[in-house]
Amino acid sequence: MRAVCVVWFAALFASTLAALPSPPRPEHNVTDQELVYQVPGMDKVTVKPGIPYKKTGAGDLKLDLYYPADFREGTRLPAVVFINGVGDQPDNHLKDWPVYRSWARLMAASGWIAVTFDARGPFDKSGIDIADLFRFLRSDGARLGVDADRIAAWVCSGNVVSGLPFLMDGADPGVKGAVVYYGDAKDVRIRTDLPIYYARAGKDNPGLNARIDALWARAVSAGAPWIMVNAPTSHHAFDVLDDTEESRRIVKDTVEFVRLVFAPPPALRTPAPARQALAYWFGREYGAAAKAYADYAKTHPDDATARMRLGLSQAYSGEAAQATENLEKAVAMGADSPIDLYNVACGYAVLKQTDKALDWLDRAVASGFRDRRLIETDDDLESLRGTPRFQKILSGLPA
Hints:
Number of helices: 15
Shape: elongated
Radius of gyration: 30 Å
Distance between the termini: 57 Å
Strand order of the largest sheet: 1-2-4-3-5-6-7-8
CATH superfamily of the largest domain: Alpha/Beta hydrolase fold, catalytic domain
Helix content: 40-55%
Number of domains: 2
CATH class of the largest domain: Alpha Beta
Structural class: alpha/beta
CATH architecture of the largest domain: 3-Layer(aba) Sandwich
């Protein structure tokens, strides 16, 4: 399957110049296309090409830097690094492709430094050059105006094969976020501390999309902070091939994602106690909700709703003595509507105090609680359903 994947990626993003008797016309070559989304100032970007970052037996590997038009020497800016994972051919470098020049100009016009670079391929051999590029930015970035503590990475298509494992395993701590377009990597580890904007093209190769879907499922299961965007009408390389509102929107949203990655973190404020307790309650995190409502009740001793939720959270957490005390105290404080009485019955039922649960259920029905379907299906009342008294209560309600 991996061989198929590599062939598919290579067909789209590795240059075809060496394989053809003559170069194709630019309009027929995907790597010669420019972004469908443009912003003012892209034509005013300053470019410093050919900066050596690593010596090899075959010569220097070099990077190109794209600066905003108003960049001032001696200052430092965040940088967006366009990862070269497919590697270069002797006379055909990824950083020279119009698609990469266009992306770099977009990022520079948006206020940051863009970095494109040489790397040796193929897909499974480029990792060391990717790592050395980031090491270079860490050691030498300051003199070039790069803030090495605020870097975002961008990686697409076949470059994802080696680029995503690097981001998940070996990225410099200065990498604060990443963009991944229409690509996947095999058996990659999922980090839960790196925000990623991940775009999938709906009209892409079905096998590739199936692998992306599986990767997304793993990310969701791990709790990774990924923004996962499906572009249902778009093709592979939509950012340069599909001149559509959908494609332009995704590129624009990508820029905004990078902007948020580079923005200073907002000042933290102490959450409102009631809101924090409500978040735990709404999320059914009953242990945390019990603690939060207990803290809240200390400063709001007359709040019947808080007292009721405290008792229910304690019941769900198995704190029987505290739960029953707070449930009945809530009713005494005024939480005595039919639904409140029903909730008290649920609390006792969860605690397996059957007789008391049935007493409160009887009381709830007598005071007007008539939702027979809820009584029949509520998991909280499971311990009551086999008792004759429960069936009698139920029979008194309209079908």
